[in-house]
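Amino Acid Chain and Its Fold in Token Form
===========================================
What this section holds: a protein sequence and its matching fold, both as plain text.
Structure line: whole-number tokens from a learned vocabulary of local backbone shapes, matched to residues.
Purpose: to set a sequence beside its fold so the mapping can be learned.
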Amino acid sequence: MAATAARRIDIVVPYAPRPQFVAFHNRKERFALGVAHRRAGKTVACINDLIHGALTCPKRQPRFAYVAPLQKQAKSVAWDYLKHYALAVPVTTAHESELHVDFPNGGQVRLHGADNPDALRGIYLDGVVLDEYAQMRAVVWPEVIRPALADRLGWAAFIGSPMGRNAFCELYETAKSDPSWFVFRLKASETGLIPAAELEAARAVMSVDQYAQEFECSFDAAVVGAYYGSLMQQAEAARNASDSPRRPTWLVFEAAPHRQSAAGSSANISCPMTPRRANSPRARRASRR
């Protein structure tokens, strides 16, 4: 009896990547990190990256995951996108209560929340996206997600907008100098994805720090309750402007004691700051304390 020839089935997913994410989809590095402005399309790009992974992974029962800071956030942000693109694949099923889709090749993409990291222990992953990593607990990546990738050599992609100089910022700075990472940064002033008039309208109702963080991907913008954000941006700009050694700033600032609330967030939003010359008698007395 003649062997039956394998039939090729071409699957078309209704997704056309934005030019800004083409390099992300074509990356060869195992790990990736993207800092992107609001409404850049990062979640849609990552969901389709997971779908492609689940459909093309050669391993048995491929498992891919999208992780948001909260379970309900994963559902509200990504579930409709996942169903829209995944269900274009024939014989694919969506499980509403469990927030996962199953593909005919045995592959699966599931949504998770980082608010219950212990629920992620014990699973294996061939690929994972951690969306808005800046809002996740520090233990989620090193203690929970990273071990889940080990035996199948899975990949990971971190994506989000800055929220000050936290773990996401530290990972970004480290990844930039590591050739095993694919790193990109999308500022609204450079991508052209949002009309200039809309950006100006947003700028009119946002503070300088809010706009710098949400649309210009600045890690130095001060979050609510934080101090010195604009000063950090000025210092960074000064460092980038010249490689020559610089003398310490001549301004010294006084601030009321920085209290912390029980939850760990700032309890006092503002404080008086008075500039004075660093070589003044009062400054010298402060430096001796």
Observations:
- The chain has a mean pLDDT of 82.
